[in-house]
From TrEMBL:
<keyword id="KW-0732">Signal</keyword>
<feature type="signal peptide">
    <location>
        <begin position="1"/>
        <end position="22"/>
    </location>
</feature>
<protein>
    <submittedName>
        <fullName>Spore-associated protein A</fullName>
    </submittedName>
</protein>
Amino acid sequence: MRLSRTTTATALAVLALGGAVAATTPAAAATAAPKAATAPPAPAAAVYNGACGTGYQVVGSTPVGNSGAVFVTWNQSTGKNCAVTVRTTTGAKIRMSVRLEAVGTGTAPVEDSGLYTSYAGPVYVAARGHCVKWSGTIGAASGGDTGHCG
């Protein structure tokens, strides 16, 4: 059995509107695609807030659970890295921290920790010619990484 153009066009129009058409022939089955499942919305991603200042470019970031991210920035002219932990959404004060270290320099890591509503930091290290190690916490969630060698 062959479908007419009108029947096929009607079936496609119904599908486009979210309806369902029973596939009674191979031709109809080929044109009747199943309706895609709707995925739940993804959590909003933390966005770098510019806290490190002018001249700093984001060179890396690491998620802190589902609560936010640690952003690492680099300033080519000063040879410094900066890090800041940013919450996805501002809220009541919560324990937050950010830590940054220039690996192999012998200098102590720098850290900012406290009760904050939106971000911890910024913290800075001179790291020209060295890699940096960074981490952050938001409540019970934590994240960190090593990289960006400037």
